[in-house]
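hey
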C-alpha cells in the first residue's frame, strides 16, 4: 500500500550528536505509525566527526558532569564513566583535575554508541538508519523525495537538517593541505620543516595533539587574525555569582547596544574579582539569557558583536580542558608551537612546501612562512560558502536561505526554516541555527533544544504529542 502523508516518515539529515538527539525526541513526540529516518553518510551513528577520534588527547571541552545526553538524567555520562570497563588506552583519555573530570571525545563516542544501540533496539522499525549520502531534496505534493548516492529515492513528510558543523570554505588552495581529522598522513612529515595551522582555537589544539600523537616532532606555527587561545576551565570558587534570571541588570538601553552590554558584563567581572570570585562564574551565569540578549539587539549591534567581540567571547565562553591548555602552554614555552596574530595574504606552492605570506596584526610588514603542510582549523564559515552538495542544492531550490549574516540557516525560534516555497515543513537544528540563536553548538544546548524541536514538528504535522 502506498504510504499517505499521515504515515510518511520524518527524515533527519545528519547522524551525529545533533541528529541522534533530534531522532530520539521525535520518536517520543510522534505517534507510533510515524517513523524517523536518520541519514548519515560517513561516521558511526551518534558520533559524527567530533566523537569518532581515537586520540586520548582529544579531550571534551566540558566537564563530564555537563555532558549527559539525557535531559532527565544530568549525571548520566559521569555515572557511565564509573560503571564502564575501560581498557588501558581508554583510561588515558580520562583526566581528573581540580576543575573536574574531563574525558576524551573517543570515550564520549563509546557512551553515545551504547546509547544509540539502546535507542535503535527500543525503536525497532520506527527508526530507520540510512547510510545514504543525501545530495538533493525534491519537493513533491505533501512532502519531499530524498535523493542519495547509489540508493533509491525515499519519500518523506518533513525534513530536519541536523548536519552539525559543516566544513567551511577551503583556505587559499594548496596541494600541501592536510586534513586535521585524517592524521594518518602526519607520520610522513619531516621534523625539520614547519607545519602551518590556520586558526588558533579549539581545532588548532586538537591538530597539535594529533600531530604529536602521530610522531611529528617539528615546529608548528598557528596563525589567526588575533592570535587568541581558548581559556582553560578552572575550579570556580564558591562566592559571588550574579543572578541574571530577572535580567534587572540589563536595562532596555543596555540591551540595545553592544558596547553598553559588554561594558555591563565587564562591570560584573570586575565586581566578581573584587569579591574574590572568578570571571568564569559571570560568563556561565549569562548562558540562560544569552539567546534573548542576542535576539534583542538591533541588527547593526549584532554585526558589531560578530566583527569586534565574538573572538574574545568565544575563547572565554567555549573553554578547554586544563590538560589540553597545559599541553599547549608547554609547547609554546618550548618553542615547538608558535602562535601568530596575523592575516594570511597569499599561499604559493613550491614543489616540496607552501610559501605563505602573512601580515602581522597591527603592522604593514610582510613575512613568509615555509610550511611542508597546512592544516585548516578555521571551522564553520558562512552557509553559502560551504561545498556540501546537499546544502548547495537546497540553496539552489530555494528550500533554505542563509541566516543572519550568512551564518547557518534562516529559521524561526522553533527551528522552522524561513521563506520556504513549499508547504512541506523543513527545520534546522543544532549548529545549523548559528546566527538565528547564539547558544546552539554545545552538547547541553543541543540536548535541551531537541525536545522543543520534536514538539514543533509534531504540532506542524498535526500529530498528537506523546504523553
Amino acid at each position: 500500500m502506498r504510504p499517505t502523508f499521515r504515515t510518511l516518515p520524518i527524515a533527519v539529515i545528519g547522524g551525529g550528536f545533533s541528529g541522534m538527539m533530534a531522532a530520539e525526541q521525535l520518536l517520543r513526540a510522534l505517534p507510533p505509525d510515524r517513523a524517523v529516518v536518520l541519514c548519515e553518510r560517513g561516521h558511526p551513528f551518534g558520533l559524527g566527526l567530533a566523537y569518532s577520534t581515537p586520540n586520548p588527547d582529544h579531550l571534551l571541552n566540558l566537564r563530564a558532569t555537563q555532558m549527559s545526553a539525557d535531559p532527565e538524567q544530568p549525571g548520566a555520562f559521569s555515572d557511565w564513566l564509573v560503571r564502564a570497563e575501560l581498557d588501558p588506552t581508554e583510561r588515558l583519555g580520562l583526566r581528573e583535575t581540580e576543575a573536574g573530570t574531563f574525558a576524551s571525545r573517543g570515550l564520549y563516542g563509546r557512551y553515545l554508541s551504547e546509547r544509540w544501540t539502546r535507542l535503535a533496539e527500543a525503536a525497532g522499525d520506527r527508526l530507520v538508519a540510512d547510510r545514504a549520502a543525501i545530495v538533493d531534496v525534491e519537493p513533491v505534493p505533501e512532502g519531499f523525495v530524498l535523493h542519495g548516492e547509489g540508493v533509491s529515492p525515499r519519500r518523506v513528510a518533513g525534513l530536519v537538517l541536523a548536519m552539525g558543523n559543516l566544513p567551511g570554505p577551503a583556505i587559499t588552495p594548496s596541494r600541501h593541505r592536510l586534513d586535521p581529522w585524517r592524521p594518518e598522513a602526519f607520520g610522513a612529515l619531516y621534523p625539520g620543516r614547519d607545519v602551518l595551522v590556520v586558526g588558533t582555537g579549539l581545532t588548532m589544539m586538537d591538530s597539535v595533539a594529533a600531530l604529536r600523537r602521530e610522531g611529528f616532532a617539528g615546529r608548528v606555527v598557528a596563525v589567526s587574525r588575533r592570535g587568541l587561545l581558548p581559556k582553560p576551565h578552572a575550579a570556580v570558587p564558591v562566592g559571588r555569582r550574579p543572578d541574571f534570571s530577572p535580567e534587572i541588570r540589563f536595562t532596555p538601553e543596555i540591551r540595545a547596544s553592544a558596547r553598553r552590554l559588554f561594558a555591563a558584563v565587564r562591570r560584573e567581572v570586575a565586581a566578581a574579582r573584587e569579591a574574590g570570585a572568578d570571571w568564569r562564574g559571570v560568563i556561565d551565569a549569562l548562558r540562560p539569557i544569552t539567546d534573548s540578549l542576542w535576539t534583542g539587539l538591533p541588527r547593526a549591534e549584532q554585526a558589531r558583536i560578530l566583527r569586534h567581540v565574538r573572538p574574545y567571547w568565544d575563547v572565554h565562553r567555549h573553554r578547554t580542558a586544563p590538560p589540553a591548555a597545559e599541553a599547549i602552554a608547554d609547547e609554546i614555552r618550548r618553542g615547538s608551537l608558535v602562535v601568530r596574530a596575523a592575516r594570511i595574504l597569499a599561499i604559493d606552492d613550491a614543489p616540496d612546501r607552501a610559501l605563505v605570506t602573512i601580515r602581522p596584526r597591527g603592522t604593514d610588514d610582510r613575512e613568509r612562512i615555509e610550511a611542508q603542510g597546512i592544516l585548516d582549523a578555521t571551522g564553520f564559515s558562512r552557509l553559502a560558502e560551504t561545498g556540501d552538495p546537499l546544502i548547495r542544492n537546497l540553496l539552489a531550490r530555494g528550500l533554505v536561505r542563509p541566516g543572519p549574516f550568512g551564518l547557518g540557516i534562516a529559521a524561526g525560534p522553533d527551528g522552522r526554516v524561513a521563506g520556504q516555497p513549499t508547504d512541506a515543513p523543513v527545520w534546522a537544528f543544532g549548529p545549523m541555527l548559528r546566527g538565528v540563536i547564539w547558544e546552539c553548538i554545545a552538547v547541553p544546548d543541543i540536548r535541551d533544544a531537541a525536545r522543543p524541536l520534536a514538539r514543533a514538528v509534531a504540532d506542524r504535522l498535526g500529530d498528537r504529542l506523546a504523553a
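The radius of gyration is 23 Å. Residues 342 and 360 are 4 Å apart (CA to CA).
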